[in-house]
UniProtKB/TrEMBL annotation:
It comes from the Bacteria. Keywords: Methyltransferase, Transferase. CDD domains: AdoMet_MTases. GO terms for biological process: methylation. InterPro entries: S-AdoMet-dep_MeTrfase_Alr7345, SAM-dependent_MTases_sf. This is Class I SAM-dependent methyltransferase. GO terms for molecular function: methyltransferase activity.
């Protein structure tokens, strides 16, 4: 279950915002954010270039969202994960969001993309006071990055350390998607836990006095 109402509230997305949905997949969250930001807002469905050649054609899917009735404020874009953003985009976004994908940034198919570089790019893109929201599948405490590729899980403490290293401060956590019956030992696609893994929700904030 995604608990969309609770997660949208947690994200802080509001009318008029400029939002980036990182690794949008089928576009579920991009479509939810679109009517919230409204005509004065904008949603960028961002596909890392490292996955552009996946058989599912994620770039085509992302770009198609904006052609659907009612979603004209959604724009599909694709660039390398840690490519430094152009200066004219600095301090542009109110919210940058990624759902169940942060662990994948560390995987081998990302062709060595720098997660630290990506987090630094996110910091530059966000307005002072803006939010960087990460929802992902939890690994067992202390496991760090050991199971990002085999189980598709990541230790939330590792995420906190990586993101705070880029200059963010942890603003809020939520247990809405937590599941204490998940012992973190199974791959997220295993039928025993698929759709009901223990997931963490972290909202980081770019300090108001940051540039």
């Amino acid at each position: 279950m995604r608990h969309p109402a609770e997660l949208v509230a947690f994200s802080g997305v509001k009318a008029g915002d400029t939002v980036m949905d990182v690794w949008p997949g089928g576009g579920y969250w991009s479509r939810l954010f679109s009517p919230i930001v409204g005509a004065k807002g904008k949603v960028y469905a961002y596909v890392p270039a490292e996955i552009a050649e996946f058989k599912s054609d994620p770039v085509k899917i992302a770009k198609a969202i904006g052609t659907e009735p009612g979603y004209g404020n959604v724009e599909g874009i694709s660039d390398p994960l840690a490519q430094p953003p152009p200066e004219h985009m600095f301090n542009t976004f109110d919210v940058i969001w990624t759902f169940e994908n942060y662990h994948d940034f560390h995987d081998s198919f990302m062709k060595g993309a720098s997660v630290d570089g990506f987090n630094q790019a996110v910091f530059k893109l966000l307005k002072p006071g803006g939010y960087y929201v990460i929802v992902d599948h939890a690994a067992a405490k202390g496991q760090g990055l050991n199971h990002t590729e085999d189980l598709h899980r990541i230790d939330p403490d590792t995420v906190k350390a990586e993101v705070e290293k880029a200059g963010f401060v942890l603003d809020k956590e939520s247990s809405v998607l937590a599941n204490t019956s998940d012992d973190h030992s199974l791959k997220i696609f295993d039928p025993a836990v698929k759709g009901k893994t223990d997931r963490f929700m972290l909202r980081f904030k770019k300090p108001a006095n940051a540039k």
